[in-house]
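Q: Can someone sanity-check these two? First one:
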Amino acid sequence: MDKTNPDKELPILRILRMISLIFELPAVFISSDPKGSHQFYYEGTSEELKQLEEINQQSAFCREVVEHDVPFTFVDLLTSGRNANYSSGSSLDGIRSYAGIPLVIRAEQRIGTLCVIDSQPRAFSSKEMELLQALSELILIQAELEEEIKLRIKTEIRLKNSEERYKTLVELSPEMIDVRHKGTILYMNPAGIQMLEAASQEQVIGRPVLDFIHPNDWNTIKQQEQENLEIGMLSQKTEEKFVTMQGKNLDVEVKATRIPYDGKNAILAISRDITKQKRMERNLLKANKQLTEIATVDGLTGVANRRRMDDFLKSEWSRSIRNSTLLSFIMLDIDFFKNYNDTYGHLIGDECLIAVAGAIRKGLSRPSDFLARYGGEEFAIILPETHLEGAIHVAERIRSQVEALAIPHSNSKIAKIITVSVGVSTLMGNVFKEAASLMDSADKALYASKRNGRNQVTSYKFE
């Protein structure tokens, strides 16, 4: 992986960024050490951790991964006995916990180690390690794609710089190369015959090229060939769909140019089967979408998490400023939830949180209404374009629906069932205020509900 080319680093950096967001880590990087030197891809905020390049392989804490090609973790560097190898003031002073996953494309090709670091002690669970392993496979997919691109570029350079070996290279090329005139195939190399699943050249030579092109691409192919014959320049890469002799559809990348052939102007086309690559790209896009959802959704309740809520509130606050519309914020807290956990246990407590989140969802009637788990037993609701009376009505409906669940709570000081206290605030977006003022006022209203006996809705009155 070439650190000097940002364009090639971008897909991997995007994966590292997602790892950093998912695990809330200050530093995530890939260490590559083929000959005793390190190259790092960083994603994180700790300036202290960015001094890691000074560490060599022999003394680094990740040597277990490098030497044995197995995942490795430690919970706390200070208590693991590993800090004895490092002097005070070294670049490891900011490191407390670590997990490493080997990155090996094939048994003979190691590309490095995926390293995640925390400045606090941390025990990585088996599920977290499984997720890291899955994410490392995404990195390997990207690395393989880069290797394929490099191989293709090298092949093209050889073709351009070695005229005298042109025929040999064409015959031995792993990519399909064909020559066509007025839409008829005049020549095709062995790789092309194999790609089209033909038994011999005789089954291909002399046939219209459109016999092997998907009908959806016919017009495009005709137009491109006409342009190549008129302009005579190497065309831009295009993606086409071929159909083999056996009826199989292939995703193919094609470049074409005009050449003299047997005294005529013909088209030389170089085609590469990218069916596997396109499938990998689709899988990567799907995985990226899933990772984005993981990074913005609360894993227990399935509602948005605090990070997603902050983004949504910022966006709605800006919209409220532009359109001069009201924005309402509801803060909700489960009454005496600590007592509930102490009484029934955390597993039952989790079930309670899920049930409360479901009741809140039922109380929201518009697609634009936004629910998030604010933290612990607190939930936040954003109601765009909603006046205070409307927000109070929604809050009271939610409070009643939670109460109607009748979840037993023997250690509640106000009832024998789960209840919630609610605070409501409404503001019009203002360039002289921050969105945080809306949250703070709802929070003050929430604590007023608690002071006044809980299981009630209180609204904040702005002066």
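And here is the second, same format, sequence then tokens:
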Amino acid sequence: MQPINQQGRQKAIHPLQYMHLVDLINRCAVRGESNSAIVTGPHGSGKTMLVSSVLREIESNPKVSKNLLIIRLHGLLQTDDKIAIQEITRQLQLDNVVGDKVFGSFAENLAFLLEALKSGSDTAQSVLFILEEFDLFAHHKNQTLLYNLFDICQSAQTPIAVIGVTRRLDVVELLEKRVKSRFSHRHIHVFNSLAFPAYKEVCKRMLTLPAEVGDAKFVKRWNQDIEALCSNATVHDVLKKTYQLDKSICRLQSLLLLPICKVTEDHPGIEAVDLVESSKHLGADSKAAMLHGISVLQLALVIAMKHLTDLYEGDPFNFEMLYNEYLKFVQRKAHVVQSFEKPVVLKAFEHLVSLEIVKPVDGHGSRSQKEYRAMALLVTSAQLMDVLNTYPGCPSELKHWASNPLPS
């Protein structure tokens, strides 16, 4: 898969957000202006890619890059302020300067690090902090890291820029009052607004080989095949379906991964059928796959739960109600269906709970006995019918029962 020009793609997809970030970082590096901003958007919208593309452009400009240090922190890795300050020290390459010094507070430690960057010069080097999963830093004790970074932004001690990246739109509400008052309240919202023709073009560019890679004849033939592939009606339908489900580039890359991995000497290209197969894998129903692995008894219980859910219009049910429904079916079909004792049926039901095919309903007598605990089915009627049609050796009585509830 070709790593296409990410800067060009981000400029095309998020032009305003791209220029906003470039301007903010340039002003910090060139003019010494401190500032802060939060990049927000849903999962897969391109927040991290946008920031990375901006940084590549910044680093390609010697005038800017020589005066800018970049510190990357991640909320999943730097889980408290002590780990965060150690990581800042490591990335600033100031381990030897800090040595065995003991600091009275986090603020004192951070101020020492930023002061050490001057290295005898009157002008401090600008520092850019990138905080991935920004909302997780808000859960640190007293939000000390965020408070000190935003405080330095306002006090003009050292030119720094702080850019948070998060999917939470309400992230500012997580900040303490003293932290919120020091934040500049710049929000850069990132949403994937790609139209389908542009989405399809991105797909083609991902699969296209650059001219300088490998044998020129092979590259030419490959690119011609990709051009034809992207014009194929079946491929168009697969891409349209994927786009309608999730228009993120991450999803598109996942779709293309399997066909690319299947390219060998014996299978030297990508065909429409490869994308169809990949789409099926990508859209595989995990609940339906789980139902294919359960026993006939458990399948009967799922059918009974479906009828109870339909009968009570989605209201919760309990095991006793389920067992009575199951008994009604067994008694009517005793000549063809094996009957099980209640403890065996309860064990089968508990296994369905562990598979999360059925789950307890919070707030409905959670302290009551397990036989009387309110439960809800997590499988739709459509999923169940699909499984019954493909379940190996499924008794015809079960299929009939699934479509025709027993009379009361």
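A (reply): Looked at the second one. The chain has a mean pLDDT of 86. Residues 15-31 form the longest helix (17 residues).
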